[in-house]
Structure formats: structure tokens, C-alpha cells
Specification:
By secondary structure, the protein is α/β, with parallel strands linked by helices. Helix content is 47%, strand content 15%. It has a single domain, classed as Alpha-Beta Barrel (TIM Barrel), CATH 3.20.20.70. Helix 10 packs across helix 11. The termini are close together.
Length: 262
């Protein structure tokens, strides 16, 4: 399993004080040296964390491939095409959201997504689509010409946390998931099955399959059971763990949990 380490949250901390500390390039070096197979960053339209200069520097100095997440906004696509990351992952964006909630709607935004894919392909950039785990999304992603899909694991992660952590008793409880435990358990089982079915179908279509969003040290084992998933992109939980253990140990532990012993 390839581990993509998302270092956006290092930039979140930096931007909180508007100083170059912590240094995003130091985070890059530590993650690479600690076993990351890929660095993932998101150049958002509002530049809330990663900045244009960060993208250029990370691509220039990374010892591993860089996966650049971006919207289908044409100004953003022009920047990505010029910078040429190893891969671009197209994601939805809403200015008011804290983090990316839900996958790219490739069914209702097929024309705009196709335009984005073709522009990136013209720049010789492989494309992944960050989509919800549905059969329809897998088939549309293939039709549009993407090489890869990244399955949005947000619902799975939320259900897992509501069932297996203190989240329901915190200020961050998910109101729509305040359900009896038996119902949460049934929904969690279905969410895992949806991810598995989508991964299998995507694999049959010839798409590479990644997964990400909300994955952490407690729930990642469920994704490891799905052999069609070849890559996981994980960020917030690694950076959160690093506050207590240091970034190197946090990456190494996640790398251990995402290594398959075939």
C-alpha cells in the first residue's frame, strides 16, 4: 500500500500566525525520510493553507511524487498545468466548508470535469478524481478519461468515530449521526461494503484506486482489507499525532499500519 502524507495542516498552523513556522519544506523532508511514498497537498482557491510558492517548492524538492489536489476552477487549472505535479486530483470545493465534504459530482458536472481532465492531460499530468464510493461514479470517471479514482471515505470515518470514540460526547458530535448503536453499526457495515464494491468495480474498469478523508490510526485497518485499494492519502490524523510524538514517528507508525505483508 502506498502512503500519501498530506501536509496541508502544517501550513494551517503556519497561516494561523502568518509566519514561516512551522516550515512546510521541513515537514516535506521529514515525511519523505520517514517512509511517505507520496506527498499530497491541496491548493485551495482561497489559499487558506498551501500557497502557490509552497507548491512550486514542494514539487522542486520532494524526493517522492507529489499529488496536487485542486478544484476544477479554470484559474486553478492554469496554475496546476504550468507547475506540473506528478498527479492532479480533482476535488470539489466550497468556501464555507472546513474540509472537503463529499466527492466531486462527476455526473452533474461532467462537462466541466471533462474540460479539466483534458487540460491537465494536455499538460501531461495524470488525473485522479476524488469521488464518492458509488458504481455510477466509477463508471463516469472511466468514461471521462481519468486514470485513477480516490474514494471519499468521509462517511465511513464519521460512522466509525461515532461508534468507536468519544466524538458523540464532544462539541464536535455529528448531529445527523446521533443514532442508536445498532443503526450506526449497520450503516458502518454498509459504508465499508460500498467502498469495497466501488474499489472492485473501478479495478475491473482499469482504474487505479486510492482512498482518503478522515482515515486515522484507529480505522485505517478497514481499508487495508480491500486489496483493490493501492494508495491511502492521510493528513490530519498524522499531523495531530505529530504534536505529541513528532512528525517522523507519526509517519512511521502510519506507514507500519498501512504495510501489507503479502
Amino acid at each position: 500500500m502506498k502512503l500519501g502524507v498530506n501536509i496541508d495542516h502544517v501550513a494551517v498552523l503556519r497561516e494561523a500566525r502568518q509566519v514561516n513556522d512551522p516550515d512546510i519544506l521541513q515537514a516535506l523532508y521529514v515525511a519523505c525520510e520517514s517512509g511517505a511514498n507520496q506527498i499530497t497537498i491541496h491548493l485551495r482557491e482561497d489559499r487558506r493553507h498551501i500557497q502557490d510558492i509552497d507548491v512550486k517548492s514542494i514539487i522542486a524538492f520532494s524526493k517522492v511524487p507529489v499529488n496536487l489536489e485542486c478544484s476544477i476552477n479554470r484559474d486553478i487549472l492554469d496554475i496546476v498545468s504550468a507547475i506540473q505535479p506528478h498527479r492532479a486530483t480533482l476535488v470539489p470545493e466550497k468556501r464555507e466548508e472546513v474540509t472537503t465534504e463529499g466527492g466531486l459530482d462527476v455526473i452533474n458536472h461532467a462537462d466541466a470535469t471533462l474540460y479539466a481532465i483534458e487540460q491537465l492531460h494536455d499538460a501531461l499530468i495524470p488525473v485522479s478524481l476524488f469521488v464518492d464510493p458509488t458504481i455510477e461514479a466509477m463508471e463516469k470517471s472511466k468514461e471521462l478519461g481519468a486514470e485513477m479514482v480516490e474514494l471519499h471515505t468521509g462517511l465511513f470515518s464519521n460512522l466509525f468515530a461515532m461508534l468507536n470514540s468519544s466524538l458523540p460526547h464532544s462539541n464536535y458530535t455529528i448531529k445527523e449521526l446521533q443514532l442508536p448503536r445498532y443503526e450506526l453499526s449497520d450503516r458502518l457495515e454498509q459504508a465499508v461494503q460500498d467502498i469495497k464494491n466501488s474499489a472492485i468495480h473501478a479495478n475491473k474498469l482499469g482504474l487505479e484506486v486510492a482512498a482518503g478523508h478522515g482515515l486515522n490510526y484507529h480505522n485505517v485497518h478497514e481499508m487495508m482489507k480491500i486489496e483493490e485499494i493501492v494508495e491511502l492519502n492521510i493528513g490530519q490524523s498524522i499531523i495531530a499525532r505529530s504534536v505529541f510524538s513528532g512528525l517522523s514517528d507519526a509517519v512511521k507508525e502510519m506507514k507500519r499500519l498501512t504495510t501489507r505483508n503479502d
